[in-house]
Amino acid sequence: MTNRIGLFGFGVVGQGYYEIAKNDRPSLLPETIVVQNKNKERPHSLQLSFDPKDILNTPHDIGIELISDPIQAYDYVSSLLKSGKKVISANKKMLAAHLPELLELEKSYGGSLLYEASAAAGIPIITCLDCHFAGDHISKLQGILNGSSNYILSRLFQDDLSLSDAVKLAQEKGFAEADPTLDINGSDVSSKLTILSLHAFGRYIPENEILTIGVQHVHAEDVALAKSLGLKIKLIATVQRSQDGLSMYILPALVGESDPLFLVENEYNAAKVTSHNLGEQFFQGKGAGSLPTGASVYADLTKAIKGYAYSYDKLQGAKIKREKPLTASLEVIVSADTADALAPLIGQATIHQAQERYWSICTLATEDLIKHLPAIEANNVSIIALNGSVRQERILDSIQKLENVHLG
Amino acid sequence: MTNRIGLFGFGVVGQGYYEIAKNDRPSLLPETIVVQNKNKERPHSLQLSFDPKDILNTPHDIGIELISDPIQAYDYVSSLLKSGKKVISANKKMLAAHLPELLELEKSYGGSLLYEASAAAGIPIITCLDCHFAGDHISKLQGILNGSSNYILSRLFQDDLSLSDAVKLAQEKGFAEADPTLDINGSDVSSKLTILSLHAFGRYIPENEILTIGVQHVHAEDVALAKSLGLKIKLIATVQRSQDGLSMYILPALVGESDPLFLVENEYNAAKVTSHNLGEQFFQGKGAGSLPTGASVYADLTKAIKGYAYSYDKLQGAKIKREKPLTASLEVIVSADTADALAPLIGQATIHQAQERYWSICTLATEDLIKHLPAIEANNVSIIALNGSVRQERILDSIQKLENVHLG
Asked: Where do the Homoserine dehydrogenase catalytic domain residues begin and end (chains A, B) (predicted)?
């Protein structure tokens, strides 16, 4: 049976899928490709449509949505699901915002929705969470979920680049968007964490409820401090389950060499899942790029054709409720150019001076950090989680030594 | 719909599956359990059968085969498939030997056969290879596939235990069989590699064609040498694809700290898959134990009920042919108690003396190593692959230093 496939969008991911299908099974190429921009140069000599109705109002079996605008993406995906179609999407922002409604549409109209490429690009983490943890109880999920942030951190650590130079390089390599804000401020990660948590825990926490600090405030002195401790800084997304619910937070964290996340470099992503039956499972793979992301779309396509659909076992058939995360206490290193920038955040904790910066090691509640986010942003305050990797005394000692180096 | 489930065997893995089902969905507990040994004490107060016909000749929908005898296992699994049943097996020896026939039975009679627990226990590597690499071209697969060997190596490196003490400890912890030979001589790994290669490459290499050296000859001086180089020794299974076919080999190898396999300790397993579209994917999880292995059986059960079957995409619909691996050239460190034990193996390569042992660094063909296996076994010759991790000169230098330590 031939499947009539409609594709929305022909950017980096769409082209990756297209190239894979062309080389593997031309019958899985799209019959119709709808794009928005009539003037954009296109790499293939293809017949393109500019009218979404060419897919939505024309008999297609499968719709693949790979555009960047989440509002339009929701229109297309929900229309297709209302026609009972098989749909594939990679739009993390849209999915994180609308999964509750989309799942209802899937159920009501008998279609299916797959979206492996929306989180951790090439890693089959959604499929694994969905079908390999049956009867298991996941207690923790931790990951590196943004390829361009990780690439930037690798450049800071390996090549001593400045943050702005590293961002430029990530853009040149195609790992960061033209406007890299969503990448470096971690917003992209919170969408992914919302999606993964639904599969891992059967709970839906909208992304705007999650404490999210990206790599935008990581300072050269943070890098020097981590190095002096034999550690690295990674942008770590964490979900931890307790009896009362989930705590969730995304922020740069110190990682030690015995942690498999320590070895995740460049555009790679990773997820570490701790569960009762399986212990610690670890997945690592490319988290950005045309072919890795296109490969997940293509795998979804072959799965959709075979009738595969997510089972959402952890929901146990319940309707999705919007929830808030629990407050968590985080042990962090806070630093800024002025003591005044730290004071409102850290309460009674001591401030240390080193390398013309002001430092404090203290325990902060995610709830309070969320309240202070505008000030953190305005004052370029760096917040790095200790992540259980090292004792406070050792860090203080290293900060003092940074100071000696500078002042001595 | 209720599924009538029949279970063969109630050992470590069977009990793991049973416990998971009992806690999660009692409807997925077996209706019938057939065991062999009437006198064995059983941990649950269950009604057991001793007659396989209670499953084979009685209407069951799903058969789960978790016994150790591969011949009997083949009888049960093939009978069930001939009745068009859904079947789950964890019997790596049986599967590695009989997958070609079993796949034919699956096709002819419309049943299905899943066996995630047969390789790397808790890691969903078979499912991932089967459904996430559609349209991709895997060039290399490398893994740590035996939990007890890896546990033993961790004890040699972390606790300075002797090989025999480490084996005893692995048995006490339940990671090694009562007769640990299949674990420590790597034979268990070759079964797994045969199974994984079918899914990763669409090629069937019977396990007896694969060069297989386990951890049985790893010497305390090998451990000292690796440590002095900042490396570890892991039992690595490798499949490498070239235009002409697959080269495959299993032997202890030096691993450096930038390799994710470096961090795989204790009973954990791992697989590293290199492919055109996805780059390097890495999977790590528990490779032994009642719950991790039982969890893979349970995941298979829930997948089987949903109608999931392996697609064997890489076979592209072709019938399975038995093939031989290509010969590969391996750069190795060979050592033994006498120079005479080395001489027939290493040709013209130089022999060095250190710590009352004789060493040589040379390149050997897998084909030749297979021929010399009886002598390697008889003379307790240690063979460690360099695995691209370090230059010969540095190793020679370290061997000389071992010598100095000893003689100085």
From this structure: 124-301
- Number of CB pairs < 8 Å for A and B? 153
Q: Is A319 known to be catalytic?
A: no
* Residue at token pair 């209720």: B2
Residue position matching structure tokens 């320590």: A262
For residue range A336-389, list pLDDT tens digits in order: 999 999 999 999 999 999 878 999 999 999 999 999 999 999 999 999 999 776
Quote the CA–CA distance of B343 and B270 in Å, as a whole number: 35
Give the distance from residue B12's alpha carbon to the nearest chain A alpha carbon, in angstroms.
14
**Which one of the listed residues B85, B86, B92, B192 is annotated catalytic?**
B192
pLDDT for A406 beyond 80: no
Q: Which one of A278, A283, A301 makes the best mutation probe of the B interface by having the most chain B beta carbons within 10 Å?
A: A278
pLDDT in tens, B172-223: 888 777 778 878 999 999 999 999 999 999 999 999 999 999 999 999 999 9
**Is residue A273 within 8 Å of A141, Cβ to Cβ?**
yes
Distance (Å) from the C-alpha of residue A305 to the closest C-alpha of chain B? 12
Q: Cβ–Cβ contacts within 10 Å for residue B159, how many?
A: 10
| Per-chain mean pLDDT for chain B | 94
The ipTM of this complex is 0.94
Q: Which of B277, B280, B286 sits opposite A295 (nearest CB)?
A: B277
Q: Do the beta carbons of residue A59 and residue A4 sit within 8 Å?
A: yes
**Domains of chain A, start order:** 5-114 (3.40.50.720), 125-288 (3.30.360.10), 329-407 (3.30.70)
Number of CB atoms found within 10 A of residue A355's CB: 18
Q: In terms of C-beta density within 10 A (0-12 exposed, 13-18 middle, 19 or more buried), how is residue A383 classed?
A: buried
- Select from B135, B295, B299 the Cβ nearest to the Cβ of A25: B135
Q: Which residues of B touch A283 (CB under 8 A)?
A: 281-284
Whether A255 and A113 have beta carbons less than 8 Å apart is answered as no
Instruction: Quote the longest CA-to-CA distance of chain B.
Output: 76
How many whole angstroms separate alpha carbon B368 and alpha carbon B373?
Answer: 9
Taking CA atoms, B57 is separated from A345, B31, B53, B76, in Å, by: 71, 14, 5, 11
**Among the listed residues A322, A91, A59, A76, the one whose alpha carbon sits nearest the alpha carbon of residue A209:** A322
Q: Using CA atoms, how far apart are residues A22 and A294, in angstroms rounded to an integer?
A: 12
Chain A closest-CA separation from residue B301 CA (Å): 9
Distance, CA of B269 to CA of B126 (rounded, Å)? 13
**Torsion over CA: B57, B62, B65, B71 (sign):** positive
Q: Are strands B245-255 and B112-114 parallel, antiparallel or unpaired?
A: unpaired
Task: State the Cα angle at B283 between B282 and B289, rounded to 5°.
Answer: 155
Q: Please compute the mean of the pLDDT values over residues A265-278 and round it to a whole number.
A: 98
**Cβ contact B135–A284 (<8 Å):** no
> Between the CA of residue A388 and those of A233, A236, A251, A367, A398, what are the distances in Å?
13, 13, 14, 20, 17
Per-residue confidence (pLDDT) for residue A182, from 0 to 100: 79
Reference A55, options A105, A7, A113, A107; nearest CA is A7
Task: Give the confidence band of A51 by pLDDT, cuts at 50, 70, 90.
Answer: very high
Nearest partner of A234 among A208, A258, A266, A211, judged by Cα: A266
